[in-house]
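quick one, 651 residues, struct below
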Amino acid sequence: MKAVIIGGGIAGMTMALLLRKENWEVVINERSPGMLNQGHAFLMSADGLSILSAFSKEQNCSLHKQNVNLFSLKRPDGDEDIRIKLDGWHCMKRVDLITYLYSFFSKDKLKMGRVFSHFLYENNKATAAVFANGEIEYGDIFIGADGSNSTVRQALFGKVAFTPVEVNEIVGISKKRAINDPEKVIFQKYQSKVKGLAFGYIPASCEESVWFMQYDVNLANGDEGKSPEALRDFCYDLLKEFPDEVGEVLDANDFSTTYIWKTRDFDTLPSFHKENVVLIGDAAHLAVPFTSAGTTNALLDAQTLTKALVTSKSITTAFETFYQKRYADLTNHLEQGRLLKQIFLNPEEHSERGYILPLVSDKDKKESEEHKPLKITYFTDPICSTCWVIQPVLRKLKLEYGAYLDIHYLMGGLLPSWDNYERGVIKNPADAAKHWEEVSKHHNTPLDGDIWTDDPLDSSYPPSIAFKAAQIQSNDKAISFLRRLQEKIFIEKKNISKWPVIEKAALTCGLDSALLLKDIQGKGLGLFHEDLDYAEELNVTAFPTILFSIEGEIKATLSGLQSYEKFEATIREFLPNVTSKSINLSPEQLFERFNNMTESEFAFITNRTAEDTNLIMTELFEDGIIEKYDSKNGLVWRYAALATDGKSGVC
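---
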């Protein structure tokens, strides 16, 4: 089979490489006489990079990419509204990627200076593409990858109705040094709260940043593009109220290579093909730039279409399958981009709490919205050692009985301060250190009491309030956050009352740390005091304390460390017809769900012996599936795919 690809951009060349790996004959036809070098840089997700990485074995040419691990949204006055960790995103210069892709093709397979004119047809099917220079390329299928102004699309479906240009984006490359801390490579964006104006910059390397200015076209008179000097003056004038670092980025920019992108889109097409001609990339679909998904979507198009062509019985079926698999995601990106554009143009009508960040995909394991008959109210505290020991029980309960249990986490306020503190044998940090070591030994659970001698907490209130603030954003992420706080204090000896430690745990769990900090000082504090009042009302003094309720009526209470069998018996007392769900997840699937597990947790959840567990952990470790953290009192195993800062799954 021979595929004739019209368009030698990222979509077209990726399509050609993927088909070539399947032993197809491919010819790429590009209208430009030389290598494409328009555009400066873009963000690419892990999904897109995984497709490109498949080509690396064919060529020794390396592809430079810069990881970007944080997104920050600030206002022109410097106030930070959003700070979120990014997973798997990289900034890449367009010229670097184009050069890399071009290196795979010889001149007879990548033909430059071919401007598409029309198709030759036989029995309603295209047999050849004809170009303006008179050259003709015959093939079996034809793939239009010729961008947003696609002439192939127009040949198939006529002109599309583009939306009006309401936002322009100016893009450039600045020589301002962009990276000071490799662990904090930030996509920094400043956005006005009163008008459609934003400035952002993303490190493309240690020495360069791609920057952009998005602006409501009503803020300009159309003269900004007349010369590099006019463009420069326009940017400085519009951004004069923005922080000094914005000016520093512009100072190091060459405006002769800076360009204006007039953003627009069109509705999702009813089909991406007609007979044996199909569209991919911007030729098939176009979204405004707020989603940062254009390049990744082009790569995913190529991957999806290749798979459909290889596995389908006919070309028609392959093209229909391609459309069905891509339609929902592409339409979602289109609608999301349009919504972001309206938020941008009308900032006073929206708050940061409703801000949509398309770079972050929500990978939480969502609970069913259906009614669950048994409510569990769980009073806990981030520094409660018994609450750490009971973790395997809670995780197993959720796996086996999660369909019936509606679990609510409340904070109990274990340590207001050390002033006049007496709780059992613990009266000071030294007592806490001794107690934790005893608990670790007795329950065979990693737990390091040295935190109480090295960097003792003054109170458990700060991490408790942080948890309540996290619940405002997402209950699932808050539970993951609580687990991560527990791992930091019990295993890693980190003082979780300190904001830098809290923030790092929050970011690794997908929380917005800027919003979290504001809620800690506001709504979160109020919710924490509501928990304390409720605990006092019920005379809850021991942790954990678990209440079982049906239709708002408390039926039973369990306090302290309880056996799994006791929990099962209590559940069955009130729900006699329940059936436990068999845990048939593989070890790898369990780590994908929970991310971090101690050996005792894994053994308990899977009913394995310590010896069997050790053998399984060793095998997973040698296969690179998990990584280990060696604490003083035992190992903690982490799912390698999410091992950065030990990100935790939902309990």
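The longest helix spans residues 315-345.
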